[in-house]
Structures are given as C-alpha cells and as structure tokens.
Amino acid sequence: MSREDPRVPHHFESAEQQTESARLGMWVFLATEILLFGGLFCAYSVYRANHPDVFYYGTQFLDKHLGALNTMVLICSSFTMAWAVRCAQLGERRALMVLLSMTLLCAALFLGVKAIEYRQKWKHGLLWARKFRAEALERSPTKAGATWAETASAKTTMAAPDGQPTSGPAASNPLTTGTKALAATAAFEDRTSIPPAGTAPAGVVSGKKSSAAKPSERTPPENVQVFFSIYFLLTGLHGLHVIAGMLAIGWILRRARRGEFSSGNFLAVDLVGLYWHLVDIIWIYLFPLLYLIH
Known about the structure:
Elements: H1 15-50, H2 52-59, H3 64-90, H4 93-123, H5 136-139, H6 148-157, H7 179-190, H8 225-257, H9 267-292
C-alpha cells in the first residue's frame, strides 16, 4: 500500500506504521484497564484481610453454579473470537460473520445469567452500602422453606431422642431435662440444611457437624454490606466492559457484512479481539475471588 491509499490517514507514512501504531495504542489502553482492575483487586485484598468473617459469610450467598456457567460461556466466547480473527486473516467473510455472531450470543448469555444473579440479590435485599437490608439475612429461605429465625426457634421445640419434647409442659419433667435435653440439642446441631444457591448461606456443610463449622456460618457478622458492595462494584464494572465489547463486536460485524475485511485488512477485528480476551481474563480472576475462596 502506498501513502495515497485511502485507508491510510495522511499522518501515517505507510499502512505498516498505521498498524503498529494502532496495536501500540490498544496495548496501552489494555494496560490502563489492568491498572484499574489491579487497584480494585488490591482493595479487595485489604478488605478481605481486615474482615475475613464478612467475606466468608457473604460468599455463601453467591451461586457458584451460575458463576461457573458464566465462566464457561466466556471461555467459549474467547475461542469463537480468536477463531473469528483467524478467519479475518484468511479472508473468510462468511465464517467471520458466523463466529462474531456466536461471540455476541455468548456475551448476551453471560449478561442474562448475571441479571438472574442480580435479581436474586435485589429480591432479598443483599445490596451495596446503605441499600443493604440486614433483615434480609433472617428472611432468606433455607432448603426446607423455613426462615433463619424459624430455624433458630426450632431448638426450643425439637423433640428429644425418646420422643419427649424439650419445651412446653412436658419440659418440666425431670426425665426430659439434663442429659436428654443435651442430647436433643446435639441432635439439632448435627442436622444439616443447605439453602438454595444465591439466596441464603449454606449453613452447615452436609456431612459435617456444626461444631466444626465456622461461627460465621450461623451468625451473620457485622458489616456484611462491605462484601456485597465489593461484589457489585467488581461484577458491575466488568459487566459494563462486556457491554462495551458487545458494541465493538457489533461494529466489526456490521463492517464484515459490508465486506470491508480481507486478508490484507483485518486490523479492527484483531484489536477488538484483544479487548475481548482481556474482558474474559478479568472474569477468570473474579470468579474464584468472589465465588470460590472461603
């Protein structure tokens, strides 16, 4: 290509210089994005170090299955995006359009799953800062459909191993007190109840006694809203990047339909692909930090 080529702006000496400048600009932009999320990850580390019980308790309200699904969706989108870049390099217009459309579909699916998670949090008041409703922790349903308050009150009405109640008129009977009452309490502590994912903490892990469980599994710690503030900040900012990526992919998809890309002109597809891979990598870090690490 000569300097008179209409695809080369006047301030570039050649198409090669334009390509190198564009790549350098994109990598500088990606570096600023890494600095942004790096600072947020540092803030996450500081808060987690100072409030480990808050993060342990808050993590139990997140749906690990939905998080894992979104992880797989983004990994698939990275594959289709990389394949699309290769098709642009080979000048395969039809395959490029199909793969870009598949990437957009994966991105939309990711946002849809995230909307389901956000709806669960909004419904139960598990929001950020002053939007957080502390009473939501007591009203979050358990697996059996009872509230946390009902679960706690069950200690006083649960029957002893021999069928005698531990409260009410029969409780005054000496035979139902002492060691039998302790046995009833121990039996209750051994019972497990795992709430629905994304709506309530898991409580005591199945197969383990509650005596071995951490106190935060049963007693909500103070400042739980700190966890949800960080959760919405990180995932919300990442979601905005996903939307920006979808707009960029839609832009190059429109250009691909017009036949603007070829084996000698695929720079825009390559740069958008770089950005999309960064969006995917950021989620790869967010998923374990928010959903898996206890």
